[in-house]
Specification:
Strand content: 15-25%
CATH architecture of the largest domain: 3-Layer(bba) Sandwich
Structural class: alpha+beta
Largest sheet: 9 strands, mixed
Number of strands: 20
Distance between the termini: 30 Å
CATH superfamily of the largest domain: FAD/NAD(P)-binding domain
Number of domains: 3
Shape: globular
Length: about 600
């Protein structure tokens, strides 16, 4: 591990780093969670409200903290928020309630949801929507000017809000980016790759004191009283994914190398309806061979608006599978399409009912219309071929309901975290809501909790700090460039052996092959290093859970086992011990009550 400073003086870090930068709160990521966290930490979000359930207002902490937000690409770009089509769920309609929303979330989570975090999510959801609207976000409305509410898989009420039909994430991102860009108390630093966390073993015990950021070969040591990870999931683990190229599990991997407790990594959600470009008129190559090109998502809102899943002859098949048919939970629909594909049966989305009910697709679902047009399809007459694709990371860095991780000084919110709000299977359109609600909460709690450090000079926090992981940052040849060939190998292994259907034999094969790839990453600090580590952790977690539950399906253990009705917790070292890999870093003790 690399020392940042021996003396505690700021200039001491320049031995190994080009520059040291200081702040009170460091936010990593610029999706909905990161943007919300930055605004809350800087004191820009008004928490003085009562939610519909009558809960007290969220404590504001110490408003006006010095905030730095670093992002791998441009502000708001590169992550999943701006790509999100389906919508955002909240109990804002007549006949609905946070309790009903919580019941649906828990039902879909198949026994693994944390009741407190689900309750907090659904109770605070309506207020989060009001704040978004107050901040300029424009949601679709009906002819009477009321919010237009749709229904998606697993919901028993119409409670999903959309913007521009299927451009909900882009609209939420636009509103939050504008607020962050205009805030004088938030310093945005674009184009920085977060490589490793900084750790300090001192009188206060082990804590996270910042991270190593890379831009154009320059190495920056960021030192902060609190680090908030909000850098998204790991969709690029799989060759077939709806996620942008930059979603590479960076936050999960950094926390794992630092010894943080991880949770529920075996649960990865696959969206049922990505456009199957290998079966379209313009198909040039299977999607798995298209490098960084994401599988175009055909939002679940299409099925909520009447689209049907059909065979090549136009006959529906979902009514025979589940009572909710096309609106069954995502794991059910995705696995059905996977099984049909394995049997050599193609699956299609019939969009003609949507067009008949709502008008031209270009007007009501412009993103889906553009994807069809690009593939040479006319949805007014053609059936649209679909296939499952990796979509959402439900496991991640363990947090409590306030976003606190097992490492003091480190907090997490959004897809990088695992608070138990999704259980074994995420309810459709809960992810954007989670990012908003817990992005705000984690920042306020972090500012309040780390306030006792206000009298400690930041230079003292940097004293004897170490960069977690195996990279020697004093070397001049540390590489961060992408390795497309290695990325494809990881993605193909994960898709074939750790995807929708898993088995002990397949997972064991994947574990061996992934371990063999590690020597190719010696001295490399880039995205593939993170992908490989998270892939190995997911495979190990999936091998441990000898049952099928929610998004985790084992062909050798196809039944749900009541004995496994518990969440899974482990550090990276605990998950990888069976591979003989050396320890990553000595982990801290797990929080009381977190193990299991």
């Amino acid at each position: 591990m690399t020392p940042v400073s021996d003396s505690g003086a700021p200039q001491g870090a320049l031995v190994d780093f080009d520059e040291v930068r200081w702040c009170e709160v460091l936010v990593v990521g610029s999706g909905a969670a990161g943007l919300s966290a930055a605004l809350a930490a800087a004191g820009s979000l008004d928490a003085g409200h009562e939610d519909p359930a009558g809960d007290p207002a969220e404590p504001s902490g110490e408003a006006g903290a010095d905030v730095v937000l670093i992002t791998k690409l441009a502000l708001g770009a590169g992550g999943s928020t701006a790509w999100a089509q389906g919508g955002i769920a909240a109990a804002v309609g007549p006949g609905d309630s946070p309790r009903k929303h919580a019941d649906d979330t828990t039902e879909v989570g198949v026994g693994l949801c944390d009741p407190r975090t689900v309750r907090d999510l659904t109770r605070r959801g309506p207020a989060a929507i009001r704040r978004l609207i107050g901040g300029g976000a424009r949601f679709d409305r009906d002819a009477d000017g009321e919010l237009a509410l749709g229904r998606e898989g697993g919901h028993t009420r119409n409670r999903v809000l959309h913007a521009g039909g299927d451009r909900t994430g882009a609209e939420i991102s636009r509103a939050l980016v504008a607020a962050v860009a205009a805030h004088p108390g938030i310093r945005v630093e674009e184009g920085y790759f977060a490589a490793d966390l900084l750790l300090w073993d001192g009188a206060l015990g082990r804590r996270v004191t910042g991270l190593v950021g890379i831009q154009g070969g320059r190495r920056i040591a960021y030192v902060a009283r609190a680090v908030v990870l909000a850098c998204g999931g790991a969709g690029r683990l799989y060759s077939h994914t709806t996620n942008p190229a930059a979603v590479t599990g960076d936050g999960i991997a950094m926390a794992a190398r630092a010894g943080a407790l991880l949770a529920d990594l075996e649960f990865f959600q696959f969206h049922p309806t990505a456009l199957d470009r290998s079966a379209t008129p313009d198909a040039a190559a299977p999607m798995a061979d298209r490098g960084d090109v994401a599988a175009p998502l055909l939002t679940e809102a299409l099925r909520g608006a009447g689209a049907l899943l059909v065979c090549a002859d136009g006959e529906r098949f979902m009514p025979e599978v589940h009572e909710l048919a096309e609106l069954a939970p995502r794991d059910v629909v995705a696995r059905t399409l996977w099984e049909r594909r394995e049997q050599g049966l193609a699956s299609f989305l019939d969009l003609r009912p949507v067009i008949r009910a709502h008008g031209p697709l270009e007007q009501c679902f412009p993103t889906a219309a553009a994807s069809c047009a690009e593939a040479g399809l006319d949805p007014s007459r053609d059936l649209v071929p679909v296939t499952p694709a990796a979509h959402y990371t439900m496991g991640g860095v363990w947090t409590d309901g306030d976003g606190r991780t097992s490492l003091p000084g480190l907090w997490a919110a959004g897809e990088v975290s695992s608070s138990g709000v999704h259980g074994a299977n995420r309810l459709a359109s809960n992810s954007l809501l989670e990012a908003l609600v817990f992005g705000e909460r984690v920042a306020k709690r972090a500012v309040a909790a780390e306030g006792f450090l206000a009298r400690v000079p930041l230079s003292h926090l940097a004293s004897r700090s170490l960069a977690a992981g195996e990279i020697d940052w004093s070397r001049a040849d540390v590489a961060v460039e992408r390795n497309p060939a290695l990325r494809r190998e990881i993605g193909d292994l994960m898709w074939r052996f750790a995807g929708l259907v898993r088995s002990a034999e397949g997972l064991s094969h994947a574990a061996r092959r992934l371990a063999e790839l590690e020597p190719r990453l010696a001295g490399v600090a880039g995205e593939e290093r993170n992908l490989l580590l998270v892939a190995r952790l997911l495979v190990a977690a999936a091998a441990r859970r000898s049952e099928s539950r929610g998004a985790h399906y084992r062909s050798d253990f196809p039944a749900t086992d009541p004995a496994w009705a518990r969440r899974s917790f482990a550090t990276a070292d605990e998950l990888l011990v069976q591979t003989g890999r050396r320890r990553l870093v000595r982990p801290t003790a797990a929080p009381a009550g977190a193990g299991g």
